[in-house]
Amino acid sequence: MSDKAGLTKRKDDKKDTKPTTTTNTTKPIVDDASKETPKYTVADFVNHEANKAVVRKFAITTFLMLTIPTILFWILNENLPIWTDGFVDEIAAPTYAGLASVFSLTSIIVIYIILAFYE
Question: Which DSSP letter does residue 47 get?
Fold first, then answer.
């Protein structure tokens, strides 16, 4: 007997059409460690003595990263033309205020990274 590809089949090469049933006698693997380890919440991690300083530092840095650049942009955008006696006009003031805000944000991030390494 030959098939389309020119290969010959043997007579005893039949597909087994009977479904095979196997019985699984092994017990499923249960992670016993998960029963013994307690479940922690975010409050547990935050209130842990070793994490309090880290969380406090992170919260202060986040607050500073949101407020200082925003306040700096607003103050410089409004007052830079006045403080420079017209050297920076009102059209260019948002550009300089934005650059100062980005610089202040970058400085806060760098300071946070340095403080985090000393933690």
Answer: H
What Cα–Cα distance (Å) separates residue 95 from each residue in 24, 80, 87, 91, 116?
71, 11, 14, 8, 32
Q: Residue for token digits 């309090």?
A: 52
The span from the CA of 106 to the CA of 41, in Å, is 32
**Whether this model's pTM surpasses 0.70:** no
> Which region, left, alpha or beta, applies to residue 6 given φ > 0 means left and ψ of -120 to 50 means alpha?
left
What would the pLDDT profile of 71-116 be if each residue is shown by its tens digit?
A: 999 999 998 888 888 788 888 889 999 999 999 999 999 999 999 8
Dmax over Cα atoms in the chain, in whole Å? Answer: 102
